[in-house]
Amino acid sequence: MIVESPAKARTVGRLLGRNYHVVASVGHVRDLLRSQLAVDIDNDFAPTYRVPNDKRQLVKQLAAEVAAAETVYLATDPDREGEAIAWHLAEATKLDPDRILRVVFHEITPDAVSRAFANPAGLDMNLVSAQQARRILDRLVGYQISPLLWERVRNRLTAGRVQSVAVRLVVERENEIATFQPREYWTLDAELAQRPKATSDGTQPFRAGLQHINGKAVDLQSDLEVTPILNTLQDGHFRVDQVKTGQRQRKPKPPFTTSTLQQAASARLRYRPARTMRVAQQLYEGLDLGEGEPAGLITYMRTDSTSVSHQSQMETRTLVEQLYGHAYLPAQPPHYKTRTKGAQEAHEAIRPTRVHLIPAAAKDHLSRDQYALYQLIWQRFVASQMVPALFDTQSVDILAGSDASNMPYLFRASGSCLAFAGYLKAYRDIDDEQENLLPPLKAGEELDLVQLLPQQHFTEPPPRYTEATLIQALEENGIGRPSTYASILATIQERGYVETTTGTGRNLRPTEIGLLVDGLLATHFPEIISTEFTSEMEANLDQVAAGDLDWISAVRQFYEPFSARLVSATENLPENRLADQPVGRTCPACASPLVVKYGRYGQFIACSSYPACRHTESASEKAGVACPQCSGDLVLRRSRRGRPFYGCSNYPGCTFSSWKRPLPTPCPNCGGLLVVQSRGAAQCLACRNEYAQEGL
Of 284, 300, 409, 423, which residue is the catalytic one? Predict the structure, then answer.
C-alpha cells in the first residue's frame, strides 16, 4: 500500500496489521520537466513528465516492491491532487492498471480504513485529468510570461495564473484606499438616567442615539448642524415613547471547511494559513495518544463541503446530551448548505474523527499548536450540532424636545440579554455580541439627561486585506480550491509582490514590484488577472473532474486567447527595468558601490562590479535585538523554502537562530532572550518562563 507521507504510512500500517506493507511516496514522484516548457502545444498540450533526481532512488525501490507484491493499493489523499499522485505512482512504477486498487478514506480511523478496503476501485481519470489540466495551465502562464518580466522588469520575477489574481485583489483594494475621499458626519448620543422615583435599585445611566428629526432619518454632516440641537436639548425634556421586547435566535455556524478554518485560526490563534494546514495535516495523519496505536484526530482538512455523516451526527448528539443536557439538542440533526462555488458535496466538513475525545483529554499528548487547533475544530463542530442561542431583546424609543409639548427628536436605545446559551456553551466567535442591558423602562416615563455626547466621524476606506480576508475573497470569487489557498498566500509574499504591514494588524499591501507587475499584466494580459475569467476556468476544471468536459478542450479554451496576448505583449511590453538599489556602502573586496539585488530567495547585497567581483552579503532586516550567544545583531532571514526566521548577523561564526520573533525586553527572571510565543504571550529561551507581553 502506498500513501504520501511517512506519518500517514505509520498510522495506516498499524491499523492494517502485519499482512500489509505500507510505504510513503513523500508527495509527488513525477512532475513536468523544469528545464523547459514541457508542454507540446502543437500536440494537444501533451506534457513531458520526469522523475526528479531526488526521487529516483525512491521510485526504483517502489517499483521493485510493486513488482513483488501480490496486491497494490494506492491510498493517497481523497482529492484531485491525491488522485494525480496515485496515477503518477502507477506510471512511474510501471504498475499494470489491472492491478491497481484505489482506496479512499476521509479519516484515518479503523472503521474508515476498513470500509475503504472493503470497497476498492480504480483510478478516477477525470480527477487526474482535472489536476493535469491545472498543472499545464499554470506551466503555460508561468513559463511564457515570466521570461518577459525578466527581460523588461527584473530578473527572477514570475507570473502565476491564480497568484496573479490574488495580487490583483490586493492592488485593487490599495487603489480604493488611495483614491478614497473621506466624508464628514456626526452622531449624537444622549446619556440618560431614570428619575429616582422610578427606580430604587440604583440602575446605571444608559445611552440612546439620535435616529430621526421630525420623522426624517438623521444625516448630520457638520458641527453647524449639531450645535442647534445641543442648544435645544441641553435643558430639554426626554420621555419614553414606546418599549418593544422580543426574543431573537442566533444560529450556530456550520462546521469548518478549509477556508473557514484558516480564517478562524488566523483570527483566534494568529496562525498563518500555511501553519494552520501543517498542523491540521498532523492531526489528520495520526498522533499517538498513549492508546497503543495512533489514529487520525480529524477528517481530511482540504474540503469545501459542510456536509456531515449521519453517524458522526448521532455520536455528537449523544455527547451533547451528556455534556450539556437534552435542552441543547435540536429536534432534528441540522444540515448546512454549502455556499462555495463547485463544492464537492461528497466530501465532509472538517470535524473530529472521535467527537467523544474532548480536547482536555488529549492535551497532554499534543503539542501546543496541535491542541489549540484540535480544540478549535472540536468546539466549532460540536456547536454546529446544537440548538441556537436565544437573546431577550429590548428596543426603546425616546422622544426629546425643548419642552413636553414640542418633542421632534427621536432617540433609540437597544439592549439584549442572553436568555439561553444554546451552542454558545461550546463555541463563541470573536465577533459574538456582548450583553447590553437596559433598565426596566416604561412608556410615558420621564428621563433625566446626564449629558449629550456629540461625536465627529469621517467615512473610512475599505480595510486592507489580511490573509484571512483575502482567502475569503478568493473563495467568494471562485478562485483556487481548498488545497491551494495556503500556497497562494505564501507564494505572493515570497515573490515580493505583497508584504505584510508592521504592527498587530498583519494587513497585506502590494510592494512596488507588485504594483508594477500587476499594471503590466492588466494592460497586456487582462484575462490572467480577471477574477471572472479565472473563476470560469475553475468551473471548467470542475467540469473536467465531473467528466463533462475533456481536459484538452479546457486548456485550449484558455490558451488560444492567451497566445494572442503573448504575441502582442512580446512586441509591445515596455522596458521598465528596475535599477539595483544602492546601499550607500562600498564593497570591502574592491571598493565598488554595493547594491541590492534580487535572487531566488529574495533580496541580497552584492558588488555592483559583478561578475568581476563576486562579493555578496545578506540584505536582512535588523530585529533590534542582540544575539544571546555572541551579542551580534539578530536579523530577519529566509530559509531555502522561503520561511522567515531570525539569525545572527555573524553567521557562520555564530549559528544562533529562532523561528520566533525576538523581543528587545530581557527576561525579568534571568535576563535571557524573550521571543513571541503566541498571541499576547512571550517565553524566555533560557529559563522557559512565560509572560504576558503587555506586562513586560
Answer: 300
Bridge partners, 213 (sequence order): 216, 409
For 526-565, how does the pLDDT look when each residue is reduced to its tens digit (9 = 90+)? 988 899 999 999 999 999 999 999 999 999 999 999 999 9
300 has catalytic annotation: yes
Identify the DSSP state of 300. -
Tens-digit pLDDT profile for residues 619-659: 666 677 888 887 778 887 766 555 678 888 777 678 888 88
* Distance, CA of 504 to CA of 589 (rounded, Å): 41
The b-or-e profile of 656-670 (16+ CB within 10 A means b, else e) is: bebebbbbeebbeee
For the chain, give the number of residues: 696
Q: How far apart are CA 595 and CA 605, in angstroms?
A: 6
Q: How far is CA 411 from CA 211, 213, 235, 403, 455, in A?
A: 5, 9, 16, 15, 15
- What is the radius of gyration, based on Cα positions, of the chain? 31
> For the whole model, what pTM was predicted?
0.79
Which domains are assigned to the chain? 2-123 (3.40.50.140), 133-180+464-572 (1.10.460.10), 215-251+391-458 (2.70.20.10), 258-384 (1.10.290.10), 660-696 (no CATH)
Q: How far is CA 385 from the centre of its chain?
A: 24
Q: What is the pLDDT of residues 255-297, one digit of tens each?
A: 999 999 999 999 899 898 989 999 999 999 988 888 777 789 9
Fill in the DSSP letter of residue 252.
P
CA distance 608 to 291: 62
Q: What is the per-residue pLDDT across 444-461, written as a single tens digit (0 to 9) for each?
A: 999 999 999 999 999 999
